[in-house]
Predict the structure.
Amino acid sequence: MKGGITVRVKLKVALLSIFTFLVAGNPLVIAEDLDPFLGVKGTLRIAGGTAHIPAMKEAAKRIMHINRDIKITIAGGGSGVGIKQAGEGLVDIGNTGRKATDNEIKRYGLKMFKFAIDGIAIVVNTENPVVRMKKAEIMDIFSGKLDNWKALGWKDRAPNVYTRDASSGTRKVFWKKALKKGKITKTANFVKSHGAMKSAISVDPYGIGYISVGYLDNTVASVSLDGVSPSLENVRKGNYSIARGLYMNTKGDPSVLTRLFIDYIMSKEGQKIVVEKGFIAVN
Amino acid sequence: MRPSIEKFAEKSFLLSALLSASITIFIFSFMFLFSLPLFRGGKIVEFLKLGWNPYDGKFGVLPMMVGTMIIASFAILIATPFGIGCSALISVFSQRNFGRFLRKLVEFMTGIPTVIYSFVAIFLLVPLVREIFQKGTGMCVLSASIMLALLILPTIVLFLTDAFNSVPKNYLSAAEALGATPVQKLMYVIIPSAWKGIISGLVLAAGRAAGDTMISLMIAGNALQIPKGLSDAARTLTSHIALIIASDYESPEFKSIFVCGLILFVFTMLIVLVLRLLGYFEILRER
């Protein structure tokens, strides 16, 4: 008797999974924004900004799911890498977390596509109770002038400043908008991506750094600036000032598949992904 | 074997030897040519003297040179006694089979990728170092040196055991006949006659320590200061290249990394040269 039930349950599970497979794999029930990809073949290479990766990955997953003939690869490297590789034709789309400079646009003939707005949050370890700071205090911490958490009412330990490497667009925007082009201390630690920044801060109780709002989760604590927290709401309304556009860049006019991808990101469903991943939609 | 085949074999060996040698020379000239523009007009002094601050037009790599030197030296300093101890255990003190097992274990160690060492260190070593010093991030000269020491240990041990094993057996027999204990054998017979092997092992290890990128990139902290103590974060020439390579091709930052490469090249060459000279003088003294 017992055996019979198990068999029946197993059969049910099997049928259910076959059904799910059919539904998920059936092109008739997917959203229409993905339709243009049907019947297209090819490879799309994407590299550059690391803030973009979660949204890009989700879009790529959905596209590759409905059409196995399309292959999309996504790499990081930072905004500098995005510009360079797109400009030299090594990738089809180069992502940047900042606008390409006039010089870069002229040299490579780049076209920019802004697809999201992203806030840059200042983050500390979850053990750190100092989650409200003034802009001047942030500047002092990053320049090395404020060299003890005690001054902000915590332990008698020096803050460990983390910053990003030369290729980072996030670093450029943060430096301009949060530090007002002020100095960053020479003792600052350098990390190479948003993910690396998050894991560095999450294991260093005395660390302070900055990441894309899209990367925020409960492994780190975000700091409110002059009483304004880096929430999506505040970024959208413009109350939180450290924000920037996220761009896709192509060399000249995009090719067919590249164009389709960009259109998809700009479509209703694509912009929904952008929102799901913690950014602000532009359309 | 027919002479023509032999000749063919000889020629192809010569070719592969020439190829590997010429690649070294080619890389050196490539580095040199590309850094030439920066050498002209006395800019090189600036290069060696100033700190690194691209926004200020300063492209000095002195902090990275010092960082490389300090981290590599500490790695050698930590690894050498352990290396000598391990090799002595393997080839002098332990039972034959146990020694062989240990050696196999060390050979296995050479195959561990450096990124694995760094990854493990981030979770196990870095928090420990942070709490010991009670300041900084734990990503510092000491952490990087310890992991680099672990990385170069197999190189040292393999060279040293080979050197220890090639000490003529009759020396050892003579020492035993005089009633020498194993420790005395090691101190007065084996180490003095294996001197050259020890040097080559250390030379290779030093080169590896100075040239490794992943460990220093991940756990030395990459700060732009000149490290003043073991708890300070530092940046090595190799991680500097890795951090800058993604910047614009036309920028002075990018051009400067050729000089970094050249310095690194000269650096390892100097290490080899100095230690070779040491060995050479040792041979002269023996005569």
User: Anything to note?
Assistant: The interface with chain A takes residues 51, 54-55, 63, 122-123, 126-127, 130, 134-139, 221-225, 232-233, 235, 243-244, 246-250, 253 of chain B (CB under 8 Å). Chain B has a mean pLDDT of 87.
